[in-house]
Design goal:
The complex is a heterodimer of chains A (about 110) and B (about 110). Chain A is mainly beta and about 110 residues long. Helices cover about 0% and strands about 55% of the residues of chain A. In chain B, a hairpin with a 3-residue loop joins strand 4 and strand 5 (about 40-50). The radius of gyration of chain B is 13 Å and the shape is globular. Classes of the chains: A mainly beta (about 110), B mainly beta (about 110).
């Protein structure tokens, strides 16, 4: 089955810096790659996603890139703010089956 | 707004007890999932269901079972709770094949003593 690895496990940046979180997946059939943000004590929420027919997607300060050949995808946050502090999870799935396999999470801390 | 509601926010049970965790969604979603969240291990899939009375094992089904008698309700059952099942449990639902966003419940923090 699918296996998703996520790095780093923790990431500390200064406000205004950029943050990059990387994931790799194992199943070449996976075609959907979402990112979820979980603030302390709250439920995970989708922040951005990308499908396998697209190499990059951007939404304001966040962007996701996908390299299907290498089975890598990454989350990029620019101009980080303290409210970006949270745990971020990447995931992979085969859209037809809807089954999401998550990475182990990255705790991002943005210091003012 | 999609609502996924879990029956308890916090639960304390004794070793050997049978435990029921309930999840209800109000958006007529076909797909429902139970995940377990542990520090450093992320979200691990226990069981999922594509339709009423259907269930599939996830990555860590041992010690758990599920029930889906109605489309809106997906229950996770710990037949005989053990201390290593102390964890945060998250339920999620996803609509049909054209929809991809998972909506999560608020989580149930289960402690087995």
């Amino acid at each position: 089955g699918e296996n998703v690895e996520q790095h780093p496990s923790t990431l500390s940046v200064q406000e205004g810096d950029s943050a990059v979180i990387k994931c790799t997946y194992s199943d070449s059939a996976s075609n959907y790659f979402p990112w979820y943000k979980q603030e302390l004590g709250k439920r995970p929420q989708l922040i951005i996603d990308i499908r396998s027919n697209v190499g990059e997607k951007k939404d304001q300060r966040i962007a996701v890139t996908l390299n299907k050949t290498a089975k890598h995808f990454s989350l990029h946050i620019t101009e980080t703010q303290p409210e970006d502090s949270a745990v971020y999870f990447c995931a992979a799935s085969i859209m037809r089956f809807q089954k999401l396999v998550f990475g182990t999470g990255t705790r991002l801390l943005v210091s003012p | 707004d999609v609502k996924v509601t879990q029956s308890s926010r916090y639960l304390v049970k004794r070793t050997g007890e049978k435990v029921f965790l309930e999840c209800v969604q109000d958006m007529d979603h076909e797909n429902m999932f139970w995940y377990r969240q542990d520090p450093g291990l992320g979200l691990r899939l226990i069981y999922f269901s594509y339709d009423v009375k259907m269930k599939e094992k996830g990555d860590i089904p041992e010690g758990y079972s599920v029930s889906r008698e109605k489309k809106e309700r997906f229950s996770l059952i710990l037949e005989s709770a053990s201390t290593n099942q102390t964890s945060m449990y998250l339920c999620a639902s996803i609509g049909g094949t054209e929809n991809t966003e998972a909506f999560f419940g608020q989580g149930t923090r289960l402690t087995v003593v």
